[in-house]
């Protein structure tokens, strides 16, 4: 190039050469634009993948947290039912014991009544012969036994509560 910016003719390319260089440059520019578009798409895809990863990580954390909470709730539920079952077993044992006690008291009252009938019959026979205790005295004894039995049953009911 000289001072005026002109290239001497002996080094200057021909018009065909210039057209080929211009076409080659245009081809390179189109190729660069395609690569640039591809790079922009890849960058957008990468940004979308990063967002998806963050969303999946967040959801995974949420699910881990939820599953941990569900496991804790399940464990609490199991513990509650075990305690409830143990409590019911204790109550059933206590109820059985009280039921047996009430049954024994009822049997002893029945035995007392039977004995009272035998004693009354014997005393009546003795009374006829010896003027022993009266029939009304024996009824009072029986009434006292029934009242005592009722008091024991009421005491058991109060203790059950």
Structural features:
88% helix, mainly alpha, 0% strand, 161 residues
What do these coordinates show?
There is one protein chain. The chain has one domain (15-160). Helix content is 88%, strand content 0%. The radius of gyration is 55 Å and the shape is rod-shaped. Helix 1 (15-130) packs antiparallel against helix 2. The chain has 161 residues and is mainly alpha-helical.
Short description:
Keywords: Coiled coil, Membrane, Transmembrane, Transmembrane helix. The protein has 161 residues and is mainly alpha-helical.
Uncertain regions spanning at least 5 consecutive residues = none
User: How far is the first residue's CA from the last residue's CA?
Assistant: 117 Å
| Share of β-strand residues | under 5%
Give the CA-based shape.
Answer: rod-shaped
Order of helices and strands: HH
Overall residue-averaged pLDDT value: 79
Instruction: Count structural domains.
Output: 1
- The radius of gyration computed from the alpha-carbon positions, rounded to a whole number of angstroms, is 55 Å
Structural class: mainly alpha
- Largest sheet geometry: none
Helical percentage: over 70%
Note the total helix count.
2
**How many strands in all?**
0
Helix-strand layout with pairing:
Blueprint (H helix, E strand, L loop, with lengths): L14 H116 L4 H26 L1
């Amino acid at each position: 190039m000289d001072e005026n910016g002109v290239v001497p003719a002996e080094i200057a390319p021909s018009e065909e050469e210039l057209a080929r260089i211009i076409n080659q440059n245009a081809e390179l520019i189109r190729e660069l634009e395609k690569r640039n578009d591809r790079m922009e798409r890849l960058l957008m895809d990468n940004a979308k993948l990063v967002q998806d990863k963050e969303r999946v990580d967040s959801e995974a954390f949420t699910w881990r947290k939820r599953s941990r909470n569900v496991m804790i709730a399940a464990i609490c539920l199991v513990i509650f039912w075990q305690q409830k079952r143990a409590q019911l077993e204790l109550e059933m044992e206590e109820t059985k014991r009280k039921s047996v006690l009430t049954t024994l008291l009822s049997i002893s009252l029945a035995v007392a009544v039977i004995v009272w009938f035998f004693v009354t019959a014997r005393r009546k026979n003795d009374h006829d012969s010896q003027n022993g205790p009266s029939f009304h005295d024996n009824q009072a004894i029986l009434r006292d036994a029934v009242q005592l039995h009722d008091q024991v049953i009421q005491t058991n009911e109060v203790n059950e509560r």
